[in-house]
Amino acid sequence: MGTDTSIIVVVLPFAPRKLRSFAERKATLLAIAAAVAISGCGRNGPTADKTSDKKPKVARSEVERGPVKLSVTVDPAPARLSDEPTLTLEIEYAEGVTVRKPEFGSALGEFIIRDFREPLPRVKDDRQILQQIYSIEPTRAGKIVIDPISITFTDRRTGGDGEEHTLQSDPLTIEIAAAVAKDAPLLADLRPPADPLPLAEPPAASARWIAALAGAAAVLLAGAVWWLRRRHLAPAGPPLTPAELAYLELQRLMEDQAAREDVKLFYVELTAIVRRYIERTTGIHAPEQTTQEFLREIGHRPEFPAEESRRLTSFLEAADLVKFAAHQPRKEDIEESFRRAKVFVRCADSEEVAA
Q1: Is the preceding peptide bond at 13 cis, omega within 30 degrees of 0?
Q2: Please, are residues 339 and 318 in contact by the beta-carbon 8 Å criterion?
Q3: Which structural domains are found in the chain, ordered by start?
Q4: pLDDT in tens, 174-219
Q5: pLDDT tens by residue, 130-149
Q6: Is 0.85 surpassed by the pTM of this model?
């Protein structure tokens, strides 16, 4: 409770020696009481807390069937185009129930997966809790829908039916705002530039020095132009083919110490080389697509026969396990992935290509 420190000054209509009358004294006392009541009203009472808890908004779907509860949360929602929201999939179920988790990255629609982790299972009140956590990136502004995510479970407890059931979350609509706010300042609102200030006339000696410097600058500029022309007239070699560019990139990757120590970085760079090679040779914007989008597109392209499409699918899906699912490949797996990349960009020997 606060303390009122204000001071009320009341001027009493005193006569020179005594109050004029009993009626005036009574009116004065009433005026003092009224002033005290008005000043204290609302000041010593509890003060309303003007700061409200502003919790970040999230989009959430929670469904429950029998011994299993499924929740999907996206934080924050709404989000900005520059954000990377977090999607958390949580499955809570009783002991004796067998749960099959959803496929990796299913139902994410127009979001790109930037990171993925799966914490260790935990137990709460005799119930198991599983989580899958995605860092996702929107590809455009507006409303993006995350489709329902499905899991299956079998109740093997005493008294359970032992049959497989499906539990599906509700679709989530995420509002993605543009990176620039609507109330951002416009160039049209800026003031026009001020007029240039007049320069003082230089003295005669300064004018000579300025002329000498200008002449020297002109000579240097002429020499630079001559050197550039002579350089451009030199014969240039033929441009590198997409396969040659990919080969040089693969060589640099093998020499990159950071990529050799970080297996996830190695696979990110390795798949990027293959995707850039595909973009240079077919025009498909492979670096900007998810693996699922890319595989759907090449399935309808004549440049990718069935066998080559199958090998490329196996290569990209194996790399995604390392990049997004924290899979630790063996040394032989890493060497095989590098060999497949060389074969695909036609940088390997003819025997390897035929294999």
Answers
A1: no
A2: no
A3: 59-177 (2.60.40), 242-354 (no CATH)
A4: 999 876 555 555 556 667 777 777 776 666 666 677 778 888 888 8
A5: 999 999 999 888 999 999 99
A6: no
